[in-house]
What does this fold into?
Amino acid sequence: MASRRYKRLPSGHKEQLGPELITAFTNSTANPYETLVTSGVDITSAINTVGNGSVYSVADSLSIVTGERYRLTFDFVLNSGNTPSIIIATNGDGIAGVSSNVITGLTTGSYSEILIASATTAIAELCIYRAGLTTNFSMTNVSLKKILVEETKEILNILAQSGSVVDRYEGDVVGDEIITDPTFQDPSLWTLDRWTISNGVATCSSGLSSTIQLTGPADVNVIGKTYRITKFVESFSGTSLRFYVDGTSGFAIDNTVGFSFNDVVCGNIVETHGMRVTNSSGDCSVSYLSIKEVRQAPVLTAVSVYKDGPVNAMYFDGATSKVNCGTPDTLVGDKSFILWVKGHKYSGAGTYLISNTQFALAFNTPDNLLSITSDGGGTIANDAYTLPLDIWTLIIVVRNAAGLIDFYVNGEIVYSALDTGTPAAGTDIIINSEPTSFKGLMNDVRIKNGLITAPEASQIFSSEKALYRL
It folds into this structure.
């Protein structure tokens, strides 16, 4: 039988947005564009030749809450000069960002981006600014709407195929862009040693060993992770052009002129997001640099593939078996967890079907308590539920950003609105993190962004149950 990997019926819902939040734009008083022409939600012309320029949606008109997500769409045309940056800002006419991300590196085209509020305030506005460099652009059809319901997009799917256990997304580029200025628009974001940045190109012509390194991003733990370095080298003559992620071991040596990419594994803990030229003579120019994480294959410990009728499933031996899925997501926010389980034995203090350092979906024995936490055990939802033995069972947990869950078995709701605590960010997602507590089969372990509904939970069971002989 062909793998279900390519046969699953689609489930989930589309992103739902609130009302339009942008009605007009106004020029900054403290840092105005020299020329600004607007009409409703269109910035038809914004020009600056010196100093800083900022344009806002109607000042102090947005009321935002930390963690809220906003969908920003617009059409952008860069006529000349450098591209602006886009943030949610506050503090009146100043550029005080209250979004946890900044949109940069724009080229001519249509955009659909997400801005995430990093503070709670009733006096925010959308800000498009260009710090200290010339620019000439237009930005039309601007729309900003609060995301009310996230699209139920799958972020993890561990399943057994003939002879192997895979994550159907392994090898995909995941995560946000590490490089905050991939097209070299803002020299202030870089630490330059014998490099210059002008008109979107970073150039080294010193004839000596030279470095260029981002100064903006916060350092994060990258040890053991794989990253894809994508770049466009305009020209190169010399000995060795190195593109670094972690400064020592996570780097690519690539002298290719033109577009190319390399996947590198990081051995150090701190990202330096830079690149270094070690040539003793020659010139180099680079116009694009992107670094994004690549999804790694799951790490299996004593997990084998067992064919149970038509199903290829993961077999856990009740001794050491577990699957480490890495950290494709921190499990903060609205999440849905879906998995098929056929247990032969549950024992010990708890059977942890899915967990990271904060979230855990577990069954405690011998009292048969369903036990779920989202805050590392500070708050635990406990309710009696007996997980049956030696029969395939579909478990679905739907948990919102406040930590309230609905629990489904075979498409039917069993418990509703159980409190598991405010979701906290965790690290590695592990299937069966207490290996001695569970012996049996699991398959098709899925985690989705967003909240699947009761009809969708029923539809998942109806569309998949025949494969499990139910």
User: Anything to note?
Assistant: The chain has three domains: 16-149, 154-163+298-468, 173-294. The first helix runs from residue 454 to 464. The chain has a mean pLDDT of 82.
